[in-house]
Design goal:
elongated; mainly alpha
Length: 119
Amino acid sequence: MPEPFTGNRRALAYFGTIRGLTANRATTQEIWLGLKAAAMSQAEWLEGLPPGAGVYSPAARERARAMLHGVTISDVNALRGIAGQMLRAKQRLATARPEDVIDAGMIGRPPNAVGPKTT
């Protein structure tokens, strides 16, 4: 089961990017490049710029830099580890025998849980 993330909360905005790159067996350098590209894409959108135009905009570059400010290698490695655990669990579930699979109906719900009841 993935451990809870205790690092810089800003990094959580890029978990989807990290998960996708982890699934594609990206290197640490490729993950950092992916994070920078994702931040720039978001900055371009927020600045009202077309895709790819952010590199020419000091405001977009600064916004992208600020979005990743404080995110460390430890944060990225922790999220990469969580993503890897999730991917391995998904692979094990896909290849498990039906009698070895635990589904949502077998997991208890705390009384304060929000959402529709699954059992």
